[in-house]
Amino acid sequence: MENYTNNNTARRYKAQVSILGTTQLHLRNPYIIGWWSAAFPGFGHLLLSKYIRGFVLFIWEVVINLQAHVNQAMIYSFQGKIDMAKEVLDTRWLLIYIPVYLFGIWDSYRTTVDMNQVYLLAKRENHRYNTFSLGAMEINYLDKRKPSTSVIWTLFMPGLGQLYNHRIITALFIIVWSVIFFYKSCVLEAVSMLFLGQVHQATNVLNAEWLLFLPSIHIFSIYDSLVTTVENNKLFEDELRNFLKMNYQHASFVIQKGKKVM
Question: How far is it, in rounded angstroms, from Cα 167 to Cα 2?
Answer without folding.
Answer: 18
